[in-house]
Design brief:
Layout: H1 2-13, H2 32-40, H3 54-109, E1 120-127, E2 130-143, E3 146-158, E4 166-176
Antiparallel strand pairs: 1-2, 2-3, 3-4
Helix pairs in contact: 1-2
């Protein structure tokens, strides 16, 4: 019964085997049902009995791919954390150096270094718990507005770690030492 329905199906879709072309139907030949079964049914190599370990292999490959993606994500995260830590150290050193410039500007506006006879100097100040070395050199300039004292200031801020995080800022500060008449 089964071979007859398969044979009928086979003749509908394969006209070169039909009686109209003069070919003998496969089921009428000797062993035709077996040949028809071999040609129409699923071949043995694709049978489920030969694929028992394939699911395991696919699962292991997928597990390997997911593991590699996870390791990549972890290494990227740790790299980004190192970058963030370095940025924090740099910012601490930068703001310490900037605070040193502001410290010097405040001291100059009070007249501390303007009228001294010393043309160079340095001192250390602690800003935000971090050390800052400030050095300066002094020169003079005259123009129509008056006499100016010009300071070239170098401020070196350091982060809490001694071997890293060192930023140097240079600034020029001009202070009017004398005023022309009428500028009061």
């Amino acid at each position: 019964m089964e071979s007859k329905s398969i044979t009928q199906w086979f003749y509908k879709f394969h006209p070169y085997l039909s009686r109209a072309n003069g070919a003998l139907p496969l089921h009428e030949k000797e062993g035709g049902a077996e040949m028809l079964r071999r040609k129409c049914l699923i071949p043995d190599r694709l049978n489920d009995s030969h694929q028992k370990g394939m699911a395991l292999v696919i699962a292991l490959i997928m597990l390997l791919v997911l593991t590699l993606i996870g390791i990549s994500a972890i290494s990227t995260t740790s790299f980004e954390a190192n970058i963030s830590g370095n940025q924090r150290v740099y910012n601490t050193a930068f703001y310490t150096a900037d605070g040193g410039i502001e410290n010097f500007r405040g001291r100059v506006s009070g007249g501390e270094f303007v009228f001294s006879a010393v043309n160079t100097g340095s001192y250390q100040v602690t800003i935000g718990g971090n050390p800052c070395n400030i050095s300066y050199s002094k020169s003079f300039r005259k123009d129509a507005e008056g006499d100016f004292t010009v300071f070239k200031v170098t401020s070196e801020g350091r982060a809490p770690f001694p071997s890293t995080g060192r930023v140097t800022i240079e600034s020029i500060i001009e202070v009017l030492a004398t005023q022309q008449e009428g500028y009061n």
